[in-house]
Amino acid sequence: MLRDITLGQYYQADSVIHRLDPRVKLAATVLFIVSLFIVDNFVGYIIAAIFLACMIKISGVPFRYMIKGMKSIVFLLVIAVVFNLFLTPGEAVLSVWKLKITKEGIRIAVMMAIRLVFLIIGSSLMTLTTTPNNLTDGMEKMMSPLKIFHVPVHEVAMMMSIALRFIPILLEETDKIMKAQIARGADFESGNLIKKAKAMVPLLVPLFISAFRRANDLAMAMEARCYRGGEHRTKMKPLVYHRRDRIGYLIIFAYMAVSVCFGRILKIPFLNI
Amino acid sequence: MGIIETKKLIFEYIRRDEEGNVEGITRAVDEVDLDIRQGDFIAILGHNGSGKSTLAKHLNAILYPTEGTVWVDGKDTMDEACLWDIRQTAGMVFQNPDNQIIGQVVEEDVGFGPENMGVPTKEIWERVEESLKAVGMYKYRKHSPNKLSGGQKQRVSIAGVIAMHPKCIILDEPTAMLDPNGRKEVIRAVRALNQAEDITVVLITHYMEEIIHADRAVVMDKGHVAMQGTPREIFSQVGKLKELRLDVPQVTLLAYELKKSGLPLPDGILTCEELAEALQSVE
C-alpha cells in the first residue's frame, strides 16, 4: 500500500508546459505570486484569472487536481477572511454585538481570499507539471550564482534528489518494520495520543539505524563512482533553453506588464471598485 | 605486473569500547599476496568474516592498507594524487542493490559515474546506451529503479560501473541478496562482460557454484589466503573445503562421496555432464 505513494504531485501528461524548462516555470510562479500582491483592484484579478485559466487549459491537468491542494489551506483561508472582515476599521455595513463588518473589510477579505486561492492554484500548477527531479535541477541552476557566497548549492540539490530517491525505499522499510513489530505484539492503533507516540519508538529506532546504514553504504558507493562534489562535474541532462522557453519568458513578462498596468497604475473609473 | 597486485597486504581494525579505549586489534586481512592479470576472471571465496570484503575494498582505494602495498594498474593506492584514476580503473559493485543506485531513473543512475568524471554530455549518452545494452537493461532505461527486481537492479549497478570504462570490476557479493534467478542473471552478465569486453573481473562470493567459470579462485580464511588455484584444483580438495566451512556444489560432493566409497572417478568434477560422462566411462 505504501509503495504506491507518488511524490510531489506530478501529473503525467504531454503538454508544452510540461516540457518547459523548470527555470521558466519557477520564475513564472514567483512572478505570478508577486503580481497577485501588487495588484489592488479587481480588474487585475480578472486578468490573473484569465491567465491562470489559459495556463491550466494548456497544461492538460484536470482542474480537480488543483483543488486538491486547496484542502490544506481551507483553515488558513477562513481565518484570513474572518479577521479581515471584522477587524478592518471603516464604514460599518452590519454590526453584530461588538463586532462590525465594514465596507473596507469586505473588500480586503475578498481580495485576500482571491490572492490565497490563486497562489495555491498557481504553485500547484508548477508542481503538477514538473517532476521533482527536474525541479531540483532547475533550483540548482537558478541558485548557482549563490556559490560566490559559498552557499553549497550543488550539495543541497544532490541531497534533495537523494532524499527523493530514498523516500519510497524508507516507506517500504517502515511498512516492513511495522509488520515485524506487530507480529511481536506491538500495538500502534489503540490508546490516546501519548500512548500512540510511545508506540512509535520501536518503529523509529530500527528505521533510523537502517537509514544511517544505508547512508553509509550510499556514501561509499558514490565515492567508488568518483563522486567528489560539484566541481568538474558534467551533466547528462543539462538544462538548455529552447525557443519555447524564451516564448515562455516573453509571455510571463507580458502578463506581468499588463497586470501591473491595469491592476495598479491605470485606474479605470467605472471598473475601479 | 598485472592489473591488480597486492604485496604483504595487512589491514587491522581497531576495536574500541564505549569510552573509546582500544580493546583489541583485529587483523581482517593478513599478508595477502595477489597478482591479477588483465582479462582474468578471479573469484574470491570465504565464509563470513574471512576478510574477503575488506580485501575487496582495498582494490579501489576505499580502505587503505595498514601495512603492505596495493597497486592498481601500476599505481599505489596510498598515493592520493592517483585516487580518482584508481577508482575509475577499478570499478566496484556492492552487495545491496538499493544502497548503491543514486539516480531516480535507470539511465540517470548509469550516467552518474561519467558525470562525476567530467565526460562531455554527448559522450555520456553514448556510454549509457552502450553499458545498458551490455547488461541487457536497455529497454528499462526510462524506468524507476524502485520498480525493478533485485537482479535487474544489480545489472543496472554493473552498467553504472561499466559506463566509467574501467579495466577491472570488483563485485563484492553482488548476489548475496538475490533470489536464484537474479543470481543467474547477474553472473551471466558478468561473464559476458569478461569474455566480450575483456574486462578483468574480481568476484567475491560465498556461493561455490558461481566460481565454476572463473579462471582462478582464491579461498580466504581468517584473513589469509588458504587455497589458490583453478576451480577444478580447488574443488578436488573437498575435505579441505569442508574444514574451511565452505559448501561444495552438489555434483562435486556426490562425485567425492562416490569416489570415497570406491568408484574410480577423477577429482574436481564441476558439472552434471562431467559426472555423467565419468560414470559412463567407469562402466
Number of strands of chain A: 2
Described by strand count, sense and barrel closure, the largest sheet of chain A is:
2 strands, antiparallel
Main sheet: strand order of chain A? 1-2
Following the backbone from N to C, one meets helices and strands of chain B in this order, namely EEEHEEHEHHHEHEEEHHHH
Low-confidence stretches of chain A: 1-7
Q: What is the CA-based Rg of chain A, rounded?
A: 24 Å
Number of helices of chain A: 11
Largest sheet of chain B: 6 strands, mixed
Q: Pick out the low-confidence regions of chain B.
A: none
Q: Distance between termini of chain B?
A: 48 Å
DSSP helix fraction of chain B: 25-40%
Radius of gyration of chain B: 20 Å
Oligomer designation: heterodimer
Q: How many β strands of chain B by DSSP?
A: 10
**Distance between the amino and carboxyl termini of chain A:** 52 Å
Helix percentage of chain A: 55-70%
Q: Which pair of chains forms the biggest interface, and how many residues does each contribute?
A: A-B, 28 and 38 residues
Number of distinct helices of chain B: 10
Structure write-up:
- The complex is a heterodimer of chains A (273) and B (283).
- Chain A has a two-stranded antiparallel sheet.
- Chain A is flat and about 70 Å long.
- The longest helix of chain A has 31 residues.
- Chain A has 273 residues and is mainly alpha-helical.
- Chain A contains 11 helices and 2 strands; from the N terminus they run H-H-H-H-H-E-E-H-H-H-H-H-H.
- The relative contact order of chain A is 0.16.
- By secondary structure, chain B is of the alpha/beta class.
- Helix content of chain B is 36%, strand content 24%.
- A 6-stranded mixed β-sheet of chain B has the order 6-7-8-3-9-10, sandwiched between helices. In chain B, strands 2-1-4-5 form a 4-stranded antiparallel β-sheet, with helices on one face.
- Chain B is globular, with a radius of gyration of 20 Å.
- In chain B, 49% of the residues are buried.
- Chains A and B meet through helix 8 and helix 10 of A and helix 2, helix 3 and helix 4 of B.
